[in-house]
Design goal:
Largest sheet of chain A: none
Strand content of chain A: under 5%
Largest sheet of chain B: 2 strands, antiparallel
Order of helices and strands of chain B: HEEH
Structural class of chain A: mainly alpha
Oligomer: heterodimer
Mean pLDDT of chain A: 91
Radius of gyration of chain B: 15 Å
Strand order of the largest sheet of chain B: 1-2
Strand content of chain B: 5-15%
Helix content of chain B: 55-70%
Low-confidence stretches of chain A: 384-388, 470-474
Mean pLDDT of chain B: 92
Largest interface: A-B, 43 and 33 residues
Helix content of chain A: over 70%
Radius of gyration of chain A: 22 Å
Shape of chain B: elongated
Number of helices of chain A: 22
Distance between the termini of chain A: 56 Å
Number of strands of chain B: 2
Structural class of chain B: mainly alpha
Low-confidence stretches of chain B: none
């Protein structure tokens, strides 16, 4: 089995490296080509790159793990908000695309800072986005290590993580956005196919879909309702996650940057329509596998491993090997996009649109992610807990400033600064103290604070110094 | 402009429909290996797609 998996993985890695080299040869050597694929992604590439970038190791392993502990509610809480989020391809994506094209913007910070002619706001935006994305990048590396460890225990988690990050770094440095987008198409197809095959084979081994569900239902009926066996999926939490995905997902720098890469608005339209269709069935598959594990009587110590253990125990080894590749594809497609968007922001917003500097930053970020794995990982918090705590909350509070920048003519620089700083302060207050949340995620309260501060400070600033801001042209 | 408000009203209604509190606490009926509420959620995501398709066709003007 190890030899077969190794061959499959070697072939997969070879194709990724080949795409990176091909993208390098096809590149036009311009900054816009390296950072944004010359703003030329058609509908198919844009759809796959938006989907593969957003669906990470967390989708593959975390969904199944959460469904194992808390039941089918995991499907709804993830699917509804993420599917509805596609509307943001119009609300945010369309405007970002238009402004990027007309003003030559490459990063999110340029767009926000550009509206108010404020370099300090541009830097602030970039620093915040980067600070909350770097841990998320490191988590992808950790996921890669765990996945490889399942097949090659002697390799060790850390070596696996270093190997995967090294490959990602190579094709990102070689081909920039083109390599990232083109590999996303391949990785997106692999991850969907792997999940479909895994689910079908597991169902077959358990006597069919009906039998698999029936056995799990007999073992624990509360898995099939909300709030679930641990009362996790309350109505407040459901609403919280809906709001979180709608406003947070476009704030991921790797998603935001992709809005610039669309060839036309037609590409964005297609992605908006196709996105919920993919989510409707793709998110269900890992959740089903996680819930079905209860009907098998398997004893699972770490819920994040449930998907791979189910595949290992209930499918023939070629399927297991394929699913390993699929899981790696899911996380690598996210990690390469994060790596590129981070290096793009750090380079373009700090020193200018210099491709070679960006390549150096990409290598440094890769080394940082490797070091995070080697020295800093705390497994006690789990994938889901770490993500929500450090990344989603920190990024969602940027959305009021972005939406105001795009749509509200009376928004001001200090309104945005207050919104961002106040939102982040609220996130940290909730992380380190025990303030009441009334059943909602702290991120939603931070989002509200952020929106209110934006409104308040913009109005006050306009009252105090109206003439200054009337000269600033609104965008859109 | 009037049409635009109707679209946002539709999207608001769809967002509200995703808060299906009336299905809470119900694990039955199980229909074709899934609880009814899971079919509801799946159908709703497909309705999102349909409404986005109509919006893209009739309201989203490429400038």
């Amino acid at each position: 089995m190890q030899a077969f998996t190794l061959t499959l993985l070697a072939a997969y890695f070879a194709v990724l490296v080949a795409i990176g080299l091909f993208a390098h040869r096809r590149g036009k050597k311009s900054a816009e080509d390296y950072f944004l694929a010359n703003r030329g992604f058609g509908a198919v590439v844009l759809f796959f790159t938006l989907a593969a970038t957003n669906f990470s190791a967390f989708t593959f392993l975390g969904f199944a793990g959460k469904a194992y502990t808390d039941g089918m509610g995991e499907y709804g809480v993830m699917a509804v908000g993420t599917a509805f989020m596609a509307l943001m391809f119009y609300v945010i994506g369309r405007k970002v695309w238009q402004l990027g094209k007309s003003n030559g913007y490459v990063t999110p910070g340029e767009l926000v800072g550009g509206r108010y002619h404020s370099r300090s706001l541009q830097i602030l935006f970039t620093v915040i986005m980067s600070a909350f994305t770097i841990p998320y990048l490191a988590i992808q590396a950790i996921g890669a290590g765990y996945i490889l460890q399942m097949v090659f225990p002697e390799l060790g988690m850390k070596i696996g993580a270093i190997l995967i990050m090294g490959i990602i770094c190579f094709y990102v440095v070689s081909g920039g956005m083109k390599a990232s987008g083109w590999t996303d198409v391949l990785q997106g197809m692999i991850m969907v196919a792997a999940m479909l095959v895994a689910c079908a084979f597991i169902a077959h081994s358990l006597g069919g879909f009906e039998s698999a569900t029936h056995a799990a239902f007999e073992a624990q009926p509360s898995l099939f309702s909300r709030p679930g066996p641990n009362d996790y999926f309350t109505t407040q939490l459901w609403l919280s996650f809906f709001i979180l995905w709608v406003f947070c997902d476009p704030m991921f720098p790797q998603m935001f940057t992709r809005f610039y890469t669309a060839k036309s608005q037609r590409s964005l339209k297609t992605a908006m329509v196709a996105y919920p269709v993919l989510i409707s069935f793709f998110f269900l598959l890992p959740v089903l596998i996680g819930v079905w594990a209860h009907g098998t009587g398997m004893d699972i110590a770490n819920p994040d491993n449930v998907l791979l253990l189910m595949v290992k125990n209930y499918t023939p080894f070629p399927v297991f090997s394929f699913v390993i590749v699929g899981a790696l594809a899911a996380l690598m497609s996210t990690a390469d996009s994060q790596l590129l968007s981070l290096s793009t922001m750090i380079t373009c917003d700090m020193v200018g649109k210099r491709v070679n500097y960006s390549r150096i930053v990409t290598v440094l970020l890769t080394l940082f992610a490797m070091a995070f794995v080697v020295f800093g990982y705390n497994p006690a918090t789990g994938i889901m807990g770490t993500l929500v705590k450090t990344t989603f909350s920190g990024l969602v509070v940027l959305s009021p400033a972005v939406i105001a920048t795009l749509y509200w003519r009376r928004a001001t620089k200090w309104g945005c600064v207050a919104s961002i700083m106040g939102g982040e302060a609220t996130v940290f207050l909730y992380t380190y103290t025990t303030l009441p949340t009334w059943g909602f995620l702290p991120a939603i309260i931070a989002l509200l604070v952020s929106a209110l501060l934006l409104l308040l400070f913009s109005v006050i600033e306009r009252m105090v110094v109206p003439a200054v801001h009337d000269s600033v042209p609104a965008q859109g | 402009m009037k049409n635009r408000w109707l679209w946002w009203l539709l999207f608001g209604a769809l967002a509200l429909l995703s808060m299906d509190f009336w299905n809470w606490g119900k694990e039955r009926p199980i229909i074709i290996f899934l609880p009814f509420w899971v079919w509801y959620v799946m159908t709703l995501t497909l309705v999102f797609s349909l409404s986005f398709a109509l919006f893209a066709k009739y309201e989203w003007r490429e400038e």
